[in-house]
Amino acid sequence: MQPNRFGRKRVHLFVFSRQNLVWRYCTADRALVVDGKVYTSAQIERGDIKQTAERAKDKLSIKCAYLLDPSALEYPSTQPLGDNWFPTIPSDPVTVVCLGYDAGEGNAPTVEWMGEVTQPKFTDTELELLCEPTNGLGRARGQGMKWQRTCGKTPYSTGIRGCNLDAALYEVNGVVTSVTTAGITVAEFASAPFPLGGGYITWARPNGIIERRSITGHAGDTVALMFGADGLAVGAVVSSWPTCPRTWSACLARDNTLNYGGSIYKPVKNPLDGVSMSWG
User: Could you tell me which residues come within 8 angstroms of residue 209 by beta carbon, excluding any fewer than 6 positions away?
Assistant: First the structure.
């Protein structure tokens, strides 16, 4: 921590957010109330903040206490934060804001770094979160479609270049009647208009988080989920959507050919493959 002009060390504040949930921690030896928000004292620290021309070097490491022992007598205050990545990683982003604060001066905290958690690393007693800065999360935009027979659009995406398939027309809702290691059973899945394999399923956790998992297989009224069915219980209400094979026939079956992004007249075989270009 950087000292101020009078030798005091600034306190580091951390704000983690995921959907409707927020976790606030501080490096002080007691909880702090800053701007009406409570920051829990925790065993947490971050690496040095860097700003370089290479965004890969600007990543930040945050370490905090986390116990993998399921029978521990007491857990650290950062245990609920680490539960976001254990036993399965979240399907939605967890953002982090790092702030600096000097309680002696009484000024408002200053934002020192903002980003998103990209990778967790566990030991028996510690969790390290590798984070990427917000300005490093951008991806290439405006790229044209590839010339290919199959459609390259993401199902249910919207916009001029989107698939524009109405997700509400293909939503399958139901109640979980069985949860096993092989998957979950929902009676309504047996009458889904299209196979659910490759699609996804969502449900609300008790804490309000909307969990999303990919469906890896579908047979009758049973589906298998990526990362298993952790967090799902019998009686839970779930919603699912099938994917699209991205072929002309699949788009035709969904009455969505106006938005098809493939080139159905592209030759299957390269007409120049094996043909000599010499006229001698």
Answer: 18, 19, 20, 21
